[in-house]
Amino acid sequence: MRMSRVCAFVFIGGLLSLSAGSSPAQTIGSVFRESLLIGPGDLLRVTVLDESDLSERVRVNDSGKVSLPLIGSVDLLGLSTAEASEVVAKKYIDAQLLKHPDVSVFIEEYATQAVSVLGQVMKPGLVSISTPRTLVDVLAMAGGLTDVADRHITVERGGTQHGVTEVFLSNKAEDALNANVEVFPGDKVLVPKAGVVYVLGDVARPGGYVMQNNSRLTVLEAIAMAAGVNKTASEGHVRLIHNSNGQYRERELPLKEIEQGKAPDELLQADDVLYIPFSFGKNVIMATNSIVASTSSALIYAGH
Hints:
The chain is of the alpha+beta class. It has three domains: 43-109, wza like fold, CATH 3.30.1950.10; 112-191, Outer membrane lipoprotein wza fold like, CATH 3.10.560; 196-301, Outer membrane lipoprotein wza fold like, CATH 3.10.560.10. The protein is built from seven helices and 18 strands. The protein has helices spanning 24-34, 81-94, 135-141, 173-177, 219-225, 255-259, 288-294, and strands spanning 43-48, 56-59, 65-68, 72-75, 103-109, 113-119, 125-129, 133-134, 152-157, 163-168, 182-183, 188-191, 196-201, 207-210, 238-244, 247-253, 273-276, 300-301. A hairpin with a 7-residue loop joins β1 (43-48) and β2. It is rod-shaped and about 100 Å long. 31% of the residues are buried.
């Protein structure tokens, strides 16, 4: 796919980013503006200074050529606007029509191309855009994020100007709207699935909980999301089961000490299982394999 192109009007603002100052997104946006390439279907405005009869608005045909006054067909496929200006000027000079033509080529509109939006969106697939759009706009066109979407989103740049932009899209409306990272035709937007922590056993709402708070979730936060432990729980024998490359390792967790501030509130990792057992008088001790197997049928809750 040919390189994404941006409108060459000088009044288009710079790429906005999540924070003030230069950012990778700003840098990539600048690169695209400086590396403007022309392709089939683009609408060009060709201006020859002091020669109004030679100035034209013309559409690039499927072979990448345009037809201009007096010089006829000119191949501009894959050129930047600066290179196209030089090619057109040379054509007028070689035809001995103008000695020192001052030619400017601008892209007023470029052809609709698709952006691939993949992963955890409601309508994954191709989204057609004809101008650069913000990431928020493109995600909205794909139906929005699913409840289990990770907020760390990757924008893979298309065309020959490859690059990757990592964006954290906060679930706070104001922050998300300010995340005006631009998406260009030919780009790919990848929305991964967020990590899930499971809180099972004698809690009010056992299940899996999506790690949406910048992928950070502590033991106490996870238990709070599960609406707390029940009075019948055996808090002295809480077990933390950690998934390490498919291998599950188990250890006891001092929940009482954590609740009392005597032990640190540990950060959990994706696929961790926090098991709060029932009192020993009411339930047989569950084996690790049985606890892990129960995660497959657990309800998944998206935290907000």
